[in-house]
Amino acid sequence: MPQIVQLPLIFASQLFWLVVVFGIIYFVIAKGMVPKIQSVVEDRDRKIADDLAAAQKAREQAETSEGVYRERIEAGRSEALKVAQEAKTKAALDTEKKLKAVDEKVGTRIAEAQARIRAAADQARLELEPVAAEAASELVTKLTGQKVSAKDAEPAVKAVLHG
C-alpha cells in the first residue's frame, strides 16, 4: 500500500497542521467563546440569586402583611363580639321592660277581674239569701210540719252563709 509507505514522509507536516488547526480552534474557543459563555453563566447565576433574594423579601413582606391581616381580623372579631354582646344586653333590657309593662297590665286586669268576680259573688250571695230563706222555710214546713216564714228563716240562713 502506497499510503503506508508515504506515512513517514507526510507525518510531520500533517502533525504540524493538526497542531496549528487545533491551536487556532483552541484560541478561538478560549478567547472568543468561553468568556461569552462565562458571562452568560455569571449573569444567569446573578439573576437567580437576585430572584431568590426578591422572593425571600416578598415572602417576608407577605408574612408581615399576613400578621397585620390576622391582627385586624382578630380586632374585627373582638369588636363584632362586643357589638353582639351589647345588642344582646340591650335586647334583654328592652324585653325585660316590655315584660314588666305587660306584667303590670296583666296584673291590673287580673285585679279588676278578681274584683268583678268578688262583686258578682257578693251579689249572688245577696240574691241567694232570700231564695235560701224561702227554701229553708219550705223544708222546715215539710219536715216538721210547722210553718216558718221566710223572714224568720233569714237570720239562720245568713248565719250559715256568712259563717
TrEMBL record:
Matches recorded under CDD domains: ATP-synt_Fo_b (cd06503)
Keywords: ATP synthesis, Cell membrane, CF(0), Hydrogen ion transport, Ion transport, Membrane, Transmembrane, Transmembrane helix, Transport
Subcellular locations according to the entry: Cell membrane; Endomembrane system
A UniProt-annotated Pfam family: ATP-synt_B
UniProt entry tagged with the keyword NADP: no
TM spans (from-to): 6-29
Membrane topology: Single-pass membrane protein
UniProt xrefs under InterPro entries: ATP_synth_b/b'su_bac/chlpt, ATP_synthase_B_chain
Primary location: membrane
PANTHER family according to UniProt: ATP SYNTHASE SUBUNIT B, ATP SYNTHASE SUBUNIT B', CHLOROPLASTIC
Xref: HAMAP family: ATP_synth_b_bprime (MF_01398)
Protein family: Belongs to the ATPase B chain family.
Subunit: F-type ATPases have 2 components, F(1) - the catalytic core - and F(0) - the membrane proton channel. F(1) has five subunits: alpha(3), beta(3), gamma(1), delta(1), epsilon(1). F(0) has three main subunits: a(1), b(2) and c(10-14). The alpha and beta chains form an alternating ring which encloses part of the gamma chain. F(1) is attached to F(0) by a central stalk formed by the gamma and epsilon chains, while a peripheral stalk is formed by the delta and b chains.
Free-text function comment from the UniProt entry: F(1)F(0) ATP synthase produces ATP from ADP in the presence of a proton or sodium gradient. F-type ATPases consist of two structural domains, F(1) containing the extramembraneous catalytic core and F(0) containing the membrane proton channel, linked together by a central stalk and a peripheral stalk. During catalysis, ATP synthesis in the catalytic domain of F(1) is coupled via a rotary mechanism of the central stalk subunits to proton translocation. Component of the F(0) channel, it forms part of the peripheral stalk, linking F(1) to F(0). The b'-subunit is a diverged and duplicated form of b found in plants and photosynthetic bacteria.
Annotated protein name in UniProt: ATP synthase subunit b
Species whose genome carries this gene: Sphingomonas telluris
